[in-house]
Amino acid sequence: MTGGTPDDGLQVLPVRGIGDVVAGDDLARLIVTAAPWITDGDVLVVTSKIVSKAEGRLVEVPADGPERDEARQRVLDGETARVVARRGPTSIVQTHHGFVMAAAGIDASNVDKTHLVLLPEDPDASARRLRADLLARGLDVVIVISDTMGRAWRNGLTDVALGAAGIEALLDHRGQVDPYGNELSLTQMAVVDELAAAAELVKGKCDRVPVAVVRGHPRSGEGSGAAVLIRDAESDMFSLGTAEARAAGLRAAAVLPDSPPAAAVPPDSPPAAPVSAVPTVDPAVVARALQTLDGLRQSDVQLTDGIRLTPARGGAAALIRTGADAHRLRAALAAEGIETTAVIDDEGVTLTYGVSA
Amino acid sequence: MTGGTPDDGLQVLPVRGIGDVVAGDDLARLIVTAAPWITDGDVLVVTSKIVSKAEGRLVEVPADGPERDEARQRVLDGETARVVARRGPTSIVQTHHGFVMAAAGIDASNVDKTHLVLLPEDPDASARRLRADLLARGLDVVIVISDTMGRAWRNGLTDVALGAAGIEALLDHRGQVDPYGNELSLTQMAVVDELAAAAELVKGKCDRVPVAVVRGHPRSGEGSGAAVLIRDAESDMFSLGTAEARAAGLRAAAVLPDSPPAAAVPPDSPPAAPVSAVPTVDPAVVARALQTLDGLRQSDVQLTDGIRLTPARGGAAALIRTGADAHRLRAALAAEGIETTAVIDDEGVTLTYGVSA
């Protein structure tokens, strides 16, 4: 069919007429009533807002005034597992689910002024339930529960998946070989996020189209839910805001311990093996740390197995300066990943490179 | 048409048969030859890789060995405006365009082993050029140039827009009112990113479908290009990796200046107005900073207009300790956003709350 459009594309279709959703509503019924044309294999992308409403995830708050702000803050605190970054009135937090979102995804739009809408408690479970409810009606479809999120580094929001059922959230290209024989590495596509984004293109922001259908997407097994998209803070290179992480560094500099923390030794354990007291430290890195202090340092520095600082001149003030210098240097070394312990005597300070027990 | 599918949805259609693209190729010709069914109003989402190839954005590198790694690093350095985060072999950098991407978007896949593919030099300009070339062939289409990117906080990659022409990159819902009378704030959707994501769903990772067409998306003016999606580092709460920002905090602690930087005074300027020497500082915040040092501090602390530290006991070592304590406290205060200057005398250290010139 030269010139014809390919027949293996996707369609993205809005579902209209679902109307207002209230607690206890049967979403499966509402959806098939509004869109009797939905068919097996379709991907239903459902805005989390209507899932939350059907599940009664609403909190009553005062309509205005400082009482509203206070109530809102309490609700936010309740939804927050940890604060990731704050600037002015904006809080980016990690929710108990693990999502990193502004204001924990709490929404005051598309709801009357005396309520806030929380995210579904377990969006993957919600997706599985809705999929089961539709299966019970004879429809075998994929469910993606979506919400709008901001991102680092890029302006503008996009819709992503909070929950999924009936689909693999990640499509793994790793191990595939391109036409040139290069193995594709690092290529796991967040397919359910892309489905959520595609669906948003036909949705409005005013709740009139809370569901869109993506038709023509290949099936990929029962799937593990969208929770696999959550990167744990441990392996995330951006687990804290820049200002927060910088402040954490300053705070760490304030509390650098003089001696290594005493290892907790259970009463009946055998004597600990001696630890290597002088870890190998790159002299170039030490030189770099010293260099950052050029013009600030006022003590003499001698490099031994560790570092020895002594006052550059006589007098009490010079001794105090050496104390400050030693701490400056410890912070500079810590910035390079080098831990130190400090022993202070009447002539100066000896820094020993970090011993981790 | 009860039961019929809505006729205002989108179609996402793969363009096959474009084949290998080489420097100097006329992309407009290749695309309309492969997909003569493309029509006015279609959105063409073009993988940046083929734009780069057509523009000759290739660099020759050795096929293997340490020479390849070195050459690759040199190319990466050339494409990097600043390093955002590094962990093991992974570098997240900001490119000269402003994109924050792993390895500056340099790609070794879908190209023979002796070349690397760089991003287009100016993806918005590339998009405008391709749009003009197609207009010259009588086709009025939207161009989105896409690439695959990772994100903070979420596993898996998605396609986003590097360049755009003929479309507004951001769709602004701000000022709209939902059915409950709430004004929608903060809602600017990154439409071109969502178009790129939708297109990726019908593309492969092996260059066989480097273009997809989104049909049915409403037109939105000539547009300002995808560069508006780049958030400048200044206003980005995640402009640095957590480890890098924490190290920056430690480094800042190392180099806290004792006196405020001397203001550069042009020779003929009138005498500077006296600056307020004692900014208002919240005593609770100072107390918090002191508290972090519980068990570490070994000097006496007196709160005055600033802070006075003196040795808790006699002897030279105690003086050195007071120097270290003063610097600890300055770092703890800096973590709370309080700058200090330090004056050291023979009895102790006086910290004065930050004077910014």
Automatic annotation (TrEMBL), chains A, B:
<keyword id="KW-0547">Nucleotide-binding</keyword>
<protein>
    <submittedName>
        <fullName>Coenzyme F420-0:L-glutamate ligase</fullName>
        <ecNumber>6.3.2.31</ecNumber>
    </submittedName>
</protein>
<dbReference type="GO" id="GO:0052618">
    <property type="term" value="F:coenzyme F420-0:L-glutamate ligase activity"/>
</dbReference>
<feature type="domain" description="Coenzyme F420:L-glutamate ligase-like">
    <location>
        <begin position="20"/>
        <end position="216"/>
    </location>
</feature>
<dbReference type="InterPro" id="IPR002847">
    <property type="entry name" value="F420-0_gamma-glut_ligase-dom"/>
</dbReference>
<keyword id="KW-0436">Ligase</keyword>
<keyword id="KW-0630">Potassium</keyword>
<dbReference type="InterPro" id="IPR008225">
    <property type="entry name" value="F420-0_g-glutamyl_ligase"/>
</dbReference>
<dbReference type="Pfam" id="PF01996">
    <property type="entry name" value="F420_ligase"/>
</dbReference>
<keyword id="KW-0342">GTP-binding</keyword>
<keyword id="KW-0460">Magnesium</keyword>
<keyword id="KW-0479">Metal-binding</keyword>
<keyword id="KW-0464">Manganese</keyword>
